[in-house]
Design goal:
Strand order of the largest sheet: 1-2-5-4-3
Strand content: 35-45%
Helix content: under 10%
Structural class: mainly beta
Shape: elongated
Distance between the termini: 53 Å
Largest sheet: 5 strands, antiparallel
Number of strands: 5
């Protein structure tokens, strides 16, 4: 039992870094080669990179940057209209 109380009982590790991916359903209102407008239940974060995938089109998805997020009313419910644009550089 010698040295029992002097031995470390726990170790504090540095916090790991990671990415949280939250999938949300959106309705695409307008799509062009360079940008799109979608409606979401949740607000967008300006400048955030998002991935938009379409099950109906069975595509790989596109990466876009949130340019604008504004409140709108759709069928009596508050929603968020997001304007997305393909980023010129995705190395963020």
């Amino acid at each position: 039992m010698s040295g029992r109380r002097s031995h470390p009982r726990f170790a504090v590790l540095p916090s790991p870094e990671g990415v949280l991916r939250v999938r949300r359903d959106v309705t695409v209102q307008r799509k062009s080669p360079d940008d799109m407008v979608v409606v979401s239940r949740d607000p967008g974060v300006l400048g955030e990179l998002v991935s938009v995938q379409s099950v109906a089109l069975d595509d790989e998805g596109i990466t876009a940057r949130v340019l604008e997020s504004q409140l709108i009313v759709v069928d009596g419910s508050v929603r968020h209209q997001l304007r997305l644009s393909r980023p010129t550089d995705t190395n963020d």
